[in-house]
Amino acid sequence: xxxxxxxxxxxxxxxxxxxxxxxxxxxxxxxxxxxxxxxxxxxxxxxxxxxxxxxxxxxxxxxxxxxxxxxxxxxxxxxxxxxxxxxxxxxxxxxxxxxxxxxxxxxxxxxxxxxxxxxxxxxxxxxxxxxxxxxxxxxxxxxxxxxxxxxxxxxxxxxxxxxxxxxxxxxxxxxxxxxxxxxxxxxxxxxxxxxxxxxxxxxxxxxxxxxxxxxxxxxxxxxxxxxxxxxxxxxxxxxxxxxxxxxxxxxxxxxxxxxxxxxxxxxxxxxxxxxxxxxxxxxxxxxxxxxxxxxxxxxxxxxxxxxxxxxxxxxxxxxxxxxxxxxxxxxxxxxxxxxxxxxxxxxxxxxxxxxxxxxxxxxx
Length: 364
Known about the structure:
This protein is an alpha/beta fold. Helix content is 45%, strand content 13%. The chain has 16 helices and twelve strands. It has helices spanning 2-8, 15-25, 28-33, 36-43, 52-72, 86-89, 122-138, 152-162, 184-192, 209-221, 237-247, 265-272, 282-289, 312-321, 326-333, 337-349; strands spanning 75-78, 97-101, 110-115, 142-146, 167-170, 196-199, 225-228, 251-254, 277-278, 324-325, 353-356, 360-363. Helix 7 (122-138) packs parallel to helix 8. The chain is elongated and about 110 Å long. The model is unreliable at 298-303 (pLDDT under 50).
């Protein structure tokens, strides 16, 4: 693992480029043990990344990272590991290594990323809650992904936790901290309850704007689709994530809103420019994605429903005669006509009888 971690830290390296390099030199270990001249000869180029001092520094950083992940129970998922998100690997700029706290399946059957403004309104929050509820009610092997930020992100994570659905928070820093700190308890619950916190940054990496933009490629790339709940028109990480989703050939959905509402402007723009599908409910997503919902659990019906004792004479008479008229039932059963009519209505309502013209009845 040491050489894999070190190799993943090579600046500018992506899975496609890494695969080409490894096909020429054999393994990650050889990348660090071969002399600079031998590497240059095999790869047919020269550069800083081949220098022995650069590679030695990477190994030192990798050793420190190995010590950290060992003490914090962090999983290192390399780009060619089976556990690596297959959807993310389709993206040319996918990270070489993912560091994860938690052991959720990053290749679940249905993965939905939900993003939006940090200034979520009641409109956006209600939509997210209903969306997660309906997805949870209809889909097996569901994973909800977001960025653990304030507003729409944490709303999606919280609702998934409430519904017992695993949820992944993709963060823009190392796993020695959680940002924002207000969400540490939620992050801990996500890990404990079957989800995960995911990053491509080694420990001691502090969050800054560039990191947040870069992590959006993971939010968009590892999912089947991206849902933008609310976003201002001019800028914002949610719009950036949506555009990445489009570039990655992901289906993008946006919740429309009033043109006068600040945090509906971005969604309306995405719909207007054909970046996103208009979404009003989970059904819109499931239809577009061609996802079949689980079949509702039907109640087992009794072939012969239980019949109250006072209604048994009515059933016996009709069964014997095929059908019966109200007056004949009154005479045969001795039940007063007013009481009998109430019983017949109840039996019809319960599916025992069918009412026929002429105040006649037969068994259903």
